[in-house]
């Protein structure tokens, strides 16, 4: 596990549990350099952790009226936070430190960018998001909040 | 003489009269695409007669747009025809369509009426994607709105 | 009619005599038309362009009457430069609330370009990444058809086509309009 700087693994999951977009960031706060510091095994684990949290999300999604479900799962020292859109698209963030408010703001930005992607007539729901602009803007949002 | 009181929220003590006898619309080639009588006052013609009337008027309009009694270089063609029984106003759009309004002799503001008829045509006839341009107009919406504009209480 | 009074007329018709509709609805509707055409025609973008132009042509034939009725234009334009001005300041303003800039007049005054700094039809659009769309598809080609149809109804035969598009990665979105000839019918309006 990384030392003092935190790293994040972010993935967007479609309605069929298929990943549409994934990214890793390191924190820029407290002198962090923004580069994710996951060990090799940890990177594979991130995907499993995210995947297994989908069950927890399904349990919790009808209990809350909010789209932001906060932290839905915990595995050893890693937390999984989730934002669930009305179209059943899940934004998952795997992280090792708890922080509610910045993550909420980050998800709000991601949601905005996702809506804009949906407006593109050539993009269909559940298609992988390959746009460079989307990628750059997600990384900028991560830099801003995380 | 028919008198119609226009209902409105503003206080109007005068009655506004609008007695339009008939509306004709001619396409670019001079063919009749719409004919409707609203108030009695004109002689009833057969549909063939109306076609001939339209074609004749189209020719006359063409001639009058090329000659002019004054020294003007460009003439707009026949615009108003007055007789003791009716007045006729012709409005030709930049696309070549002609609107003929027949009304009672002392009817004023006919150009406002013509403009409104043109607006209704642009809305209910042209915006219907199934209407074939230059063909006779068979639009229920156009008929309805035109009637309620020209004869508001009937 | 001077250029500023045309701008004012355009503004006035847009504000007072036009019903408004949600912009996203227009963008999404146009977008789904283009996307469906691309699917139906199997990625033959040249054919998609042609179909968009045809649809625009049918729209233009009808739109011109609405334009003339609402804007109350009674006089014909004196020359093609006037036509360009009216298209930009009154036409586009009335229907899309944009005023493209007129540039690049040819020396014989028969060709000009419209520069679009905003294009409501193409908001949020990114062309598909299949290698052909970026070089073959003119996304807003319907606008070219609209101009061609509308001007044909007022006796002008023109050719309109896009020469650059920001969706394709170019710096500007530019449409070139070229007057082919005035359509004289059997009774010319002026005494030439």
Description:
Chain A: InterPro entries: Longin-like_dom_sf (IPR011012), Sedlin (IPR006722). Chain A: One of its GO terms (cellular component) is cytoplasm. The complex is a heterotrimer of chains A (146), B (154) and C (192). Chain A is of the alpha+beta class. Chain A has a single domain, classed as Beta-Lactamase. Chain A has helices at 40-60, 100-119, 132-145; strands at 7-13, 19-26, 68-75, 78-84, 90-95. In chain A, strands 2-1-5-4-3 form a five-stranded antiparallel β-sheet, sandwiched between helices. The model of chain A has no long low-confidence stretch (mean pLDDT 87). Chain B has 154 residues and is an alpha+beta fold. Chain B has a single domain (20-150), classed as Beta-Lactamase (2-Layer Sandwich). Helices cover 29% and strands 18% of the residues of chain B. Chain B is built from three helices and five strands. In chain B, strand 1 and strand 2 (32-37) form a beta hairpin. In chain B, helix 2 runs antiparallel to helix 3 (140-150). Chain B is globular and about 45 Å long. Chain C has a single domain (3-182), classed as 2-Layer Sandwich (Muramoyl-pentapeptide Carboxypeptidase, domain 2), CATH 3.30.1380.20. Chain C contains six helices and four strands. Chain C has helices spanning 3-16, 23-40, 45-71, 80-96, 133-136, 141-153, and strands at residues 101-103, 111-116, 156-164, 173-182. Chain C has a four-stranded antiparallel β-sheet with strand order 1-2-4-3. In chain C, helix 1 packs parallel to helix 4 (80-96) and helix 3 crosses helix 6. The radius of gyration of chain C is 17 Å and the shape is globular. The interface between B and C is medium-sized, with 21 and 21 residues.
Summed up:
Chain A has helices at 40-60, 100-119, 132-145; strands at residues 7-13, 19-26, 68-75, 78-84, 90-95. Chain A has a single domain (7-145), classed as Beta-Lactamase, CATH 3.30.450.70. With 146 residues, chain A is an alpha+beta fold.
Main attributes of the structure:
heterotrimer; A: 146 residues; alpha+beta; Beta-Lactamase; 5-stranded antiparallel sheet; 3 helices; C: 192 residues; Muramoyl-pentapeptide Carboxypeptidase, domain 2; 4-stranded antiparallel sheet; 15% strand; disordered C terminus
């Amino acid at each position: 596990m990384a030392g003092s700087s935190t790293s994040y693994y972010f993935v967007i999951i479609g309605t069929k549990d298929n990943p549409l977009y994934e990214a890793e960031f390191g924190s820029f706060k407290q002198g962090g350099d923004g580069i994710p510091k996951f060990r090799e095994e940890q990177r594979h684990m991130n995907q499993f952790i995210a995947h297994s949290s989908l069950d927890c999300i399904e349990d919790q999604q009808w209990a809350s009226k909010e789209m932001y479900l906060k932290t839905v799962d915990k595995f050893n020292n890693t937390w999984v936070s989730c934002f669930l859109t009305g179209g059943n698209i899940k934004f998952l963030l795997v992280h090792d430190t708890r922080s509610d408010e910045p993550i909420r703001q980050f998800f709000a930005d991601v949601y905005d960018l996702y809506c804009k992607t949906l407006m593109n007539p050539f993009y269909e729901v559940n298609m992988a998001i390959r746009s460079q602009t989307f990628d750059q803007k997600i990384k900028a949002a991560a830099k801003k909040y995380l | 003489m028919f008198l119609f009181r226009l209902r409105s929220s503003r206080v109007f003590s005068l009655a506004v009269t609008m007695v339009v006898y008939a509306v004709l619309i001619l396409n670019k080639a001079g063919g009749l695409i719409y004919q409707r009588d609203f108030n009695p006052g004109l002689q009833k013609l057969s549909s063939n007669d109306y076609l001939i009337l339209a074609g004749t008027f189209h020719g006359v309009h063409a001639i009058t747009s090329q000659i002019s009694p004054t020294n003007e270089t460009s003439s707009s063609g026949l615009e108003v025809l007055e007789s003791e029984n009716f007045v006729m106003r012709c409005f030709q759009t930049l696309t070549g369509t002609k609107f003929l309004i027949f009304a009672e002799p002392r009817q004023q503001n006919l150009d406002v009426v013509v403009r409104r008829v043109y607006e209704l045509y642009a809305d209910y006839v042209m915006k219907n994607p199934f209407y074939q341009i230059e063909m006779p107009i068979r639009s229920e919406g156009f008929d309805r709105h035109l009637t309620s504009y020209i004869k508001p209480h009937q | 009619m001077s250029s500023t009074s045309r701008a004012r007329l355009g503004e006035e018709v847009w504000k007072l005599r036009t019903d408004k509709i949600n912009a996203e609805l227009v963008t999404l509707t146009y977008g789904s038309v283009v996307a469906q055409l691309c699917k139906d025609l199997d990625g033959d973008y040249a054919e998609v362009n042609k179909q968009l132009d045809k649809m625009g042509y049918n729209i233009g034939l009808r739109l011109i009457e609405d334009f003339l009725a609402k804007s109350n234009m009674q006089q014909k334009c004196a020359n093609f430069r006037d036509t360009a001005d009216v298209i930009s300041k009154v036409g586009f303003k009335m229907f899309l609330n944009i005023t493209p800039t007129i540039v690049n007049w040819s020396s014989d005054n028969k060709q000009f370009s419209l520069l679009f700094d905003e294009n409501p039809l193409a908001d949020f659009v990114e062309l598909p990444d299949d290698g052909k769309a970026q070089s073959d598809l003119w996304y807003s080609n319907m606008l070219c058809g609209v101009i061609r149809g509308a001007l044909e109804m007022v006796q002008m035969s023109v050719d309109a086509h896009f020469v650059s598009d920001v969706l394709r990665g170019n710096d500007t979105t530019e449409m070139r309009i070229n007057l082919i000839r005035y359509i004289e019918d059997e009774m010319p309006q002026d005494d030439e």
